[in-house]
Inverse folding.
């Protein structure tokens, strides 16, 4: 096959991933809500409700606070754009997306950081008490999660001598026995905590609350309305799906398409959806049984994740 | 024809600029000096480019210019990189100075000293012998000290800052001088090639001592913890173009000094040297970033962030030396390239940030974040450029900070698996330190940009702020532009960085990063495509904007008042402040920061159930200053008091001291001989 058709295949697969994440993110959030409602004995909204909400918000008028600047207008767009770029290059459904060579885990982390940092700035832009509160808390949590995140990447990269995500996943596919290697288990445990913290789920942040003592993400975006809020909700849902998607593919890489045939891509989509559904369902069950941790107890949780990640690195270096 | 005349012409022009600055009337003083400073920068930069391009060192010797020692110039590729860095900071800083001059740079003394400071900065990396280096180094320290003191009439803080700076810079210079003297005592010559030819013959313990002395001496210039105490004092008090030069260029020369002594002259050494550098770097990065995240004075925040960035560069430098000592030359080269890239990037964004802080101070009269706010609406260009530079320092793609941190991350990542016990412990911990530093830098600069430039103005000065002079905006624009260029197309400068690294690692045959649009590590698995990331982001932003336009029914935005919890009017005091923004970080790291908090409640005269006013006070002092230096100062005072017992003023007693000393000397001679 020629280089051109390889590039076209890769671009098509990246497009499939972006569309899957754009539609799947809100669905994933809706599914988790439904699971939680059923466990709590409520009927709950339909699974499609987040998508319906986004459509509703898109039809409304945009309102901008009088003090706001271009930062406020730009942040939701950049949030969605960064997640879309990550969704295009990360190996979610296929190990060979476009520009997959550049899908360095470090680059992915910092691309996502770009979106969340701009959103934190946007929280300060309106000049209200709530926005600053949300921004301050969000960046603090992000800063404390960073060591756990980068050390996790180190632990995962030790085996393949590369922090390139497709390479990490391919090397796991090639050596199935390494799935249960201790360094991976420790590192993935740490990664799960970081994914939960970064996407603002319980026990770090409660997306369903609007109580000023506890809210983080919702306080930051309080001034958004209409299409801007639609973008923020979509962006956050997509971000959650990308993070969780990377996590499940690191835990169990099977099913990820290694070639560009239509059958493999469909198989990849189905297995990816199944893995996500199982993990998200388990997370939802966990969320029902747990309460939000106090903001100032969070450092302990994230330090725990950091120690887990460091254990991963140490065991990786010991069993070498 | 040799290119040596370029160096001489640059130096002469620089000195002439100083004379012009001191001589001309106030109106033309700084501008005319600035023109000559640019010419000097252009000459020196041309010499540096010549060295980079041809690979031939510029060597000059004059035995007559200064008697006995003579003057030696040797500009190699490592020096050339630092000359280019200094010129890159000095040109915009001087341009900013033209607009800033009315605010404290247009006195005869200031306009005369500023060009001399720039000239010294340009010449230090070109020095080829101990005497020339130390002469220029001291001149650089003295001229910068004069410039820190220039506003001494305005506040006591300036005088105190200058004292601290003087003590550290001269204490450091003494240690550096001792290091050089140990080397020259062994060798007959004093030029760097002569020293490096004989340095290997020294005993390992002596080599170690020389390295440690130089590390502490240059470290005090580079702002390494625990020798950083002068930075958060001197940087805020100096005029902003001077702060930019000090933080972007002079501090970088401290790292140049460590590379010069450790790599070039001593020819690298055992791993404990470099692990020391790595540990100092990690400590500086963490301490600096924690303090930057909790500072409320904009320039103090930037000063602590300088300590943090230099710490990262030293982590890379230490890792490089460590890899070399464990025989991994390719990794060593990669880490050294990372270190130099971090220094180069730091010069670009830190100079931009210091100059913007100067613009803000000119426009609002304050650099306290809690007096600012809403500046992006009032100073749109300065504000936007500050935001871009802040994003660069926070290592957000597609800007230059990201490329530097990626290189550092990759060198540590691949270095973790080299199979040395010390490395197994040090490298993952260095990586953790780097990660926490990166996270806290985001906190610090979201705070600086968000509290300072967004929201509502917190003071009359901020409310009345207007955009600053065009020269000042252009100066910051040049540097912020450099951040974008270095971030999107780093391959334009990486070859120069690699050539500079080759001077420190002479055995290196392969460049550690491939020459292409994408950064591909050579011999290791790692790839970054900064241009593709930038392009992808632009395309994605365009697509999202287009999609929103298609999907949204009513696109025209309407302006409304922000929600104020049911209150009718929002005031600036309802916003989060810099103190409240940093409160979670301050609480998490209170063991390091030890904040002093105080709440004063005064009750109404009628009843103590009614509160008349509340005063909250929060201050964060430097723990190192309090726990180390204040003790040293107290101890010195006590010894000084005790010494007074020896000096009662009696001439007889002093004659007895003299006699006693002579007896002791003779007695000891009798015993020794």
């Amino acid at each position: 096959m020629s280089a051109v058709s390889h590039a076209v295949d890769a671009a098509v697969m990246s497009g499939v991933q972006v569309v899957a994440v754009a539609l799947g993110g809100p669905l994933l959030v809706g599914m988790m809500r439904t699971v939680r409602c059923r466990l709590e004995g409520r009927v709950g909204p339909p699974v499609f409700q987040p998508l319906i909400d986004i459509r509703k918000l898109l039809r409304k008028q945009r309102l901008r606070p009088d003090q706001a600047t271009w930062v406020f207008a730009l942040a939701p767009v950049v949030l969605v754009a960064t997640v879309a770029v990550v969704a295009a290059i990360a190996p979610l459904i296929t190990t060979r997306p476009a520009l997959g060579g550049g899908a360095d885990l470090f680059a992915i982390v910092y691309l996502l950081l770009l979106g969340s940092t701009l959103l934190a700035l946007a929280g300060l832009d309106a000049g209200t008490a709530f926005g600053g509160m949300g921004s301050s808390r969000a960046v603090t949590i992000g800063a404390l999660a960073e060591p756990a995140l980068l050390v996790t990447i180190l632990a995962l990269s030790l085996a393949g001598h590369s922090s390139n995500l497709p390479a990490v996943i391919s090397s796991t596919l090639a050596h199935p026995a390494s799935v249960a290697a201790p360094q991976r288990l420790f590192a993935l445990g740490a990664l799960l905590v970081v994914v939960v913290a970064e996407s603002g789920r319980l026990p770090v942040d409660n997306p369903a609350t609007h109580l000023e003592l506890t809210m983080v993400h919702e306080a930051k975006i309080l001034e958004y309305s209409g299409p801007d809020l639609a973008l923020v909700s979509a962006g956050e849902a997509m971000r959650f799906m990308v993070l969780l998607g990377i996590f499940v593919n690191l835990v169990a890489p099977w099913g990820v398409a290694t070639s560009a045939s239509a059958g493999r891509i469909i198989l990849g989509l189905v297995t990816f959806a199944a893995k996500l559904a199982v993990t998200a369902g388990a997370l939802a069950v966990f969320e029902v049984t747990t309460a939000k941790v106090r903001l100032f107890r969070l450092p302990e949780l994230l330090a725990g994740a950091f120690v887990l990640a460091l254990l991963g690195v140490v065991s990786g270096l010991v069993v070498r | 024809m040799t290119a040596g005349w370029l160096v001489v012409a640059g130096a002469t022009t620089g000195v002439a600029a100083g004379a012009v600055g001191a001589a001309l009337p106030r109106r033309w003083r700084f501008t005319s000096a600035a023109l000559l400073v640019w010419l000097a920068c252009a000459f020196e930069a041309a010499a540096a480019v010549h060295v980079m391009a041809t690979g031939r060192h510029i060597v000059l010797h004059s035995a007559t210019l200064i008697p006995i020692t003579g003057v030696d110039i040797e500009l190699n590729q490592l020096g050339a990189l630092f000359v280019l860095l200094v010129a890159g900071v000095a040109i915009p800083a001087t341009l900013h100075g033209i607009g800033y001059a009315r605010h404290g740079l247009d006195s005869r003394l200031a306009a005369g000293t500023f060009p001399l400071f720039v000239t010294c900065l340009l010449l230090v990396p070109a020095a080829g012998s101990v005497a020339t280096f130390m002469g220029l180094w001291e001149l650089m320290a003295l001229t910068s000290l004069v410039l820190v003191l220039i506003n001494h009439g305005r506040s006591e803080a300036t005088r105190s800052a200058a004292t601290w700076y003087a003590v550290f810079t001269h204490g450091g210079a003494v240690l550096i001088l001792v290091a050089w003297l140990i080397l020259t005592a062994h060798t007959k010559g004093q030029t760097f090639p002569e020293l490096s030819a004989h340095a290997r013959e020294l005993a390992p313990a002596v080599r170690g001592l020389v390295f440690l002395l130089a590390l502490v001496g240059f470290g005090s210039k580079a702002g390494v913890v625990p020798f950083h105490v002068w930075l958060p004092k001197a940087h805020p008090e100096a005029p902003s173009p001077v702060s930019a030069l000090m933080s972007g260029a002079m501090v970088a020369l401290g790292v140049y000094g460590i590379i010069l002594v450790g790599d070039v002259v001593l020819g690298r050494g055992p791993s404990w040297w470099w692990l020391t550098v790595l540990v100092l770097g990690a400590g500086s990065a963490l301490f600096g970033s924690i303090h930057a995240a909790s500072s409320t004075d904009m320039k103090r925040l930037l000063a602590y962030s300088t300590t943090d960035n230099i710490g990262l560069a030293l982590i890379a430098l230490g890792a490089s030396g460590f890899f070399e000592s464990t025989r991994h030359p390719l990794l060593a080269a990669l880490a050294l390239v990372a270190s130099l890239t971090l220094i180069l990037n730091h010069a670009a964004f830190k100079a931009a940030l210091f100059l913007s802080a100067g613009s803000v101070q000119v426009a609002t009269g304050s650099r306290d974040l809690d007096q600012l706010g809403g500046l992006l609406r009032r100073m749109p260009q300065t504000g936007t450029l500050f935001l871009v530079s802040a994003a660069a320092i926070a290592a957000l793609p597609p800007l230059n900070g990201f490329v530097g941190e990626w290189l550092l991350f990759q060198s540590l990542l691949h270095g973790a698996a080299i199979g040395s016990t010390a490395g197994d412990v040090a490298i993952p911990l260095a990586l953790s330190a780097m990660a926490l530093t990166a996270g806290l830098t985001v906190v610090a600069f979201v705070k600086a940009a968000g509290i300072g430039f967004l929201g509502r103005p917190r003071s009359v000065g901020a409310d009345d702020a207007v955009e600053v002079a065009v020269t000042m905006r252009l100066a910051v624009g040049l540097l912020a532009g450099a951040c974008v260029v270095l971030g999107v197309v780093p391959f334009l400068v990486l070859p120069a960085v690699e050539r500079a690294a080759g001077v420190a690692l002479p055995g290196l045959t392969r460049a550690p990063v491939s020459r292409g649009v994408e950064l591909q590590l050579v011999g290791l698995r790692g790839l970054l495509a900064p241009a593709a990331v930038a392009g992808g982001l632009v395309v994605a932003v365009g697509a999202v904007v287009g999609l929103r336009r298609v999907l949204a029914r009513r696109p025209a935005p309407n302006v409304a008042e922000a929600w104020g919890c049911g209150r009718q009017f929002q005031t600036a005091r309802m916003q989060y402040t810099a103190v409240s923004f940093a409160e979670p970080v301050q609480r998490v790291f209170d063991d390091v920061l030890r904040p002093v908090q105080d709440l004063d409640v005064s009750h109404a005269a009628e009843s103590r159930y009614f509160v008349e006013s509340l005063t909250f006070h929060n201050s964060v002092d430097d723990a190192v200053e309090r726990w180390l230096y204040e003790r040293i100062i107290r101890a010195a005072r006590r010894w000084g008091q005790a010494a007074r017992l020896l000096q009662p003023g009696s001439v007889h007693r002093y004659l007895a001291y003299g006699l006693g000393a002579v007896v002791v000397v003779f007695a000891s001679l009798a015993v020794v001989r």
